Amino acid sequence: xxxxxxxxxxxxxxxxxxxxxxxxxxxxxxxxxxxxxxxxxxxxxxxxxxxxxxxxxxxxxxxxxxxxxxxxxxxxxxxxxxxxxxxxxxxxxxxxxxxxxxxxxxxxxxxxxxxxxxxxxxxxxxxxxxxxxxxxxxxxxxxxxxxxxxxxxxxxxxxxxxxxxxxxxxxxxxxxxxxxxxxxxxxxxxxxxxxxxxxxxxxxxxxxxxxxxxxxxxxxxxxxxxxxxxxxxxxxxxxxxxxxxxxxxxxxxxxxxxxxxxxxxxxxxxxxxxxxxxxxxxxxxxxxxxxxxxxxxxxxxxxxxxxxxx
Amino acid sequence: xxxxxxxxxxxxxxxxxxxxxxxxxxxxxxxxxxxxxxxxxxxxxxxxxxxxxxxxxxxxxxxxxxxxxxxxxxxxxxxxxxxxxxxxxxxxxxxxxxxxxxxxxxxxxxxxxxxxxxxxxxxxxxxxxxxxxxxxxxxxxxxxxxxxxxxxxxxxxxxxxxxxxxxxxxxxxxxxxxxxxxxxxxxxxxxxxxxxxxxxxxxxxxxxxxxxxxxxxxxxxxxxxxxxxxxxxxxxxxxxxxxxxxxxxxxxxxxxxxxxxxxxxxxxxxxxxxxxxxxxxxxxxxxxxxxxxxxxxxxxxxxxxxxxxx
Lengths: 310, 310
What we know:
alpha/beta, 2 domains, globular, Rossmann fold, homodimer, seven-stranded parallel sheet
């Protein structure tokens, strides 16, 4: 409880220790979230995602520094791929953001993509709740966004910034297409290099072609490593937030996320139930055996298991 | 039934129509799989995956042509990202493989990454079953493998080929690390370009560092667009299959996949149950409302829902 009170007062070390609980101890994590849930919902949560090599870390770094000029408290959750060979998050990012980490108004945490009970999306969501309760004005979730799981993580944000970069080739274009629809704001980074204008034009064309959009996302060209146009990006992020508020969409969006979270929690428990139900008496193994021998089919056995559980 | 019999006789058009059922009609799909399940389990299923730009389609193309020289029947499921703007799979791949598609011993199908009832992994799995039952000797599942969902799809294979390529930058390296452990065989494509040897060396080093491997995956350098070293890749694929058979691991691996499939089918139905249970009476909405207003917390409501279902 003392740890929680410290966290609620904005203590960074308390935040760090509570996030470790969220990562490693499912039971304690539940207790914790139950206690602090009422303190959440105040921060503006921003997702920053895009293909590998788009310079998301540098962009996040500069953006946080800009927010700090107005003395905002900022939390950053950097979701990194984890190597099965090292078992930890990539060291690079942590080092890169070292000067930020020393700032008492900034909290930075790297999270890997495996090994969390209940999955990374859940762990990230709960880490965000802790930072939210601790009084962060802004929380940035940075992910290497290329697959569905990364998209799922970033969906929990109020504002999603999709970072693109010139010259990643045709194949990247097609991946972009798949995650394009989650962007509230498009940023072309490295806009000093050849092809940047063309990339921006392509994104604009894609966005113009899209029919069913209530709001047409803007495209901003920045050069993060030169700290160029970060203010413009910030203005567009603010505009988007204001747009959500003015149209009752912030509430709508957050409710959608709340609903999804609740259903996922129920599903997670049901999954455990299925496994317990079938593994106890070795039934799952014998079912697998008869499927392997083609004596039955998976849908028939599914129905057997379902009638058992209900 | 006539369609099924035609498919079992190896008719390509029947296969195509049955895969469309698997994609679009959940109920009919179940009936179909129940009927044909006993005819599955004969094909060698090969997953080919890797980052965007690695030349997977070209490699698949050349590999299929090599297999055709021995008159093997080959099925290819190419899992493509789908653009929300076009709603279809990328046209490029279909065109590229056009000459293959005319070969009566080859069946090719593109599948997008969204819009399938029960998810893409399920649709892919069932499409593979159809091709398996239709008498394909080899079935290749080709995916742009960067996220968790793509990894999940490729896990259903007996042999997973991870395609790498030189010069994709540091950030790609870290993604590679995350999916590295699923590779039974590593292929460095475009090995005629600068840096290929270095990429191969890096992969070899990573593999050597890894401790808990029963079998150390080989690394093969190929140049798919010049049809170079594809035979060597094929030999390694055969060696891996033989290794699985000799050590009883093929059965073990397939049983693991069967078990996973069965559990996923049960989970899918339980999910539907939760949604039905809560949406009917508007309860989910009122729960969401009280969560949004911080009157309670998600874990408490989860337990309420769980006690209802059980």
